[in-house]
Known about the structure:
By secondary structure, the protein is mainly alpha-helical. Among the domains are: 70-151 and 709-947, no CATH class; 470-579, no CATH class. The protein has an eight-stranded parallel β-barrel with strand order 1-2-3-4-5-6-7-8, surrounded by seven helices. Helix 24 (597-626) links the parallel strand 6 and strand 7 (630-636). The longest helix is centred in the first third of the chain and has 42 residues, at 37-78. The radius of gyration is 29 Å and the shape is globular. Mean pLDDT is 87; it is low at 3-25, 81-113 and 762-766.
Amino acid sequence: MSPETNSSETESRNPALREAGRRGGPTRDADRQELPARMRRDVRLLGDMLGEVLRESGGQDLLDDVERLRQAVIAARSSHGPDGASSDGDGASSDGASSDGASSDGDAAAGHGDPHADPAGDEIAALVASWPLDRAELVARAFTVYFHLTNLAEELQRVRALRERDTGQAPVRESLAASVAEFRGEQGAGQLGDLLDRLRIHPVLTAHPTEARRRAVATALRRISDLVTALDDDRRGAAEQAEARRRLGEEIDLLWRTSQLRANAMTPIDEVRTVMAAFDETIFQVVPHVYRALDEARREADAGQSAPAVPAFLRFGSWVGADRDGNPFVTAQVTRETAVIQAEHVLRALENAATRIGRALTVNEGDAPPSAGFAVALEAAETAHPELLADLAARSPHEPYRTYLLYVARRLEATRLRHADLAYARAADLLADLRLVQESLAAAGASRQAFGELQQLIWQAETFGFHLASLEIRQHSAVHARALREITEGGTVSGQASEVLATFRAAAWIQDRFGIDACHRYVVSFTRSAADIGAVYELARHATRSGRPPVLDVVPLFESGEDLNHAPQVLDDMLQLDPVRERLEANGRQLEVMLGYSDSAKELGPVGATLRLFDVQEQLVRWAADHDVRLTLFHGRGGALGRGGGPAGRAVLAQAPGSVDGRFKVTEQGEVIFARYANPVIAQRHLEQVTSAVLLASSPVVGERNAAAARRYRPVADQMESAALRAYRELVETQGFPEWLARISPLEEISGLRIGSRPARRGVGVVGLDDLRAIPWVFSWAQTRLNLPGWYGLGSGLAAAAASPGGLAELREAYQGWPLLAVLFDGAEMSLAKTDRRIAARHLALGGRDDLAGRVLAEYDLTRRLVLEVTGHDRLLANRLVLSRAVALRDPYVDALSHLQLRALTELRALPAPGGDGAADDPELAARREQLHRLLLLAVSGVAAGLQNTG
Length: 951
């Protein structure tokens, strides 16, 4: 399968494409040629090798079928013009993007999404339908594997681009050096120092099921990435290059033969171990480099030769193995086991780092005489463990620093293995030892040794402690209410209530063993009153009558529109609770409040949720100032745009004035974790971008600018919000809407991907949107190629605002002047760019509801047209050409998988339900259903890989 090798010849023979080229419009071949040469080389190499593997495993016939479908989807795109639009007018812009699939040749007018208005699509559907199901499966696998390889090539190119951009001659955009220079220039060095002293960036990793790839697939891709990187190394000789190519072919063959689908559902502990890979491979290693970059940016000289000028400002949290909201498989025992696993990983990492640095620290005592304090500590170690110290000293004569750090490494090993006589009691004791070594080296003049690698180990110990990431328990307020009612009424206590009590005992156990920081936050989903917070403290007392209750910071989570509106009143009432007042007194009046982006967007639509969340942030900032509270807003963002996702740095800079102030906490979920933390270079860039944005967002200049923009453009935003919310609610409240969604999308089948331990809905069956979790809601719409949660209602909102006295001119000004609206419009533009109208129309036709299909497509056409008018772009993503080209080049291959998915969905929807009238239990019918289900899931996985979005 060599998707980019021969397509230029095909496209050069296409009259429509030649005409597009004469018109000056972008062509697929032109888009491909604009990609960096090394990336084109990687894609071609990987595609050629995959084609070889397909030929070897399935014969030339399989490769021919894959190629036939590939050529068909490319030709279908080309036949509608270079950017997916023709020009005979249905109200959609004739200069739209190939990445949005919009067309002007009658889709909307001909039966509200009649798929028969797309003859090229009909031919592709017929081709796909002509294959036996086992052949269709193989073709789906081939395109899915191709997307995995293409994603890998794009990741490698991003790493190259980041390195090439860092010339050292000027600060890289969104780097720490750039943000420090800007902040210092505006506010001065003193204000910068005050900000850094209180800086805290707090990513929280969650197990929300949005990573569609198996871990085995991700691991295979990491090996392939290493081999492609090796081939990129000009220092390698011909024999080494040949061996790398041989190994690359072997690994691609293995990837092809590895099942893309999980055989068994993931357990919570599986999720824990998956996330541990991100910590082991990147996060632990990258964190000190981020600190070093900020230290260098602040000091500009002597970094690494004197005490650092920045604190360890990163902290990591985790819901993995602790979030039990709607997940009955996360138990108290699972949470305890999670804490033990995390400690095992961080202690091993610290031990390995101490061993590596210790072995290298061959400083002779004559060159750097030990300080008095260090000499006393070394003597105490020799007294307590004479045999161990004698053995270490014999290997390192006259090298006390080497001896002592290797002793530290042995103590870390003992801590991990629970050998009490040698183990550290707490992370603070480790830090005291490391600082003692550092201070002695610095006093003796060995400053480079004191503040180089040793400082990085100190930063790691400060950041991760002995617990790695703070476990945050989450449970639904209704579960607490039921449990408390059962306990106080004195009747039979249910299994669920018993489990709630066991959770508090598990938290107390974790704190006793690993420290309070290991597990002290308790998030209450759907907080509606202060009583929901008080119930947690009361349940904790009931659970631990025979022992000490855990220290708890209970975090209210406001998710629905009504709950967001009532948040300040709930916080007022919380301050009347004795346990809350006691915690504020103990922790310096620090309080966390979590805001839910996913459920608010599902309820209010993208426009309503964006503006409601901004408003509540403004209100909470004022509330905190009035009550002398140091507020941290915890942003519950997802990966997809319909769940608050998108570029993290821009999102931070668009926050309400005063809501950041040096503190930023956010969830990172599913595929986002691996997109951001799978590669060390990308991981460091991500953490630097977020930190850079937090620094700038904390500047009074940025705050004042955002406040002025909010005042200036709020009237037009309010006009937009009212109409957008009305359009959105009219759609989702239409009778039969949930059942319709289940028919047009793989909503019901998504659980078969087994991508997480968490059930897809809170109840049984799709009765209403409240029963449906936000992730399958977004995932399903992405699979239909509509991406509806990212844009629906915006068109109606823009139309209403455009009809006001200020009209489009004011909307354009608001887009340029208010970062919040810029993020909203650009996010919608991205969602529209990943939408394909023709494929979407085929999905909509499965539902048998022309009214709903017509409404959705009309709103799409309106939104697309007005977004382009407001942004001033002549095509979607016109201002992000690299991204636009990547989307355009991917689209045909996503189309191929969408047609395979549509075949499976269409046939599955036509089959009688299992156990229905007797025929459904026929063995042949059951076998066909199972095969169609497998094809559907393969296509779903492939589309997710192609779009690089799930939930």
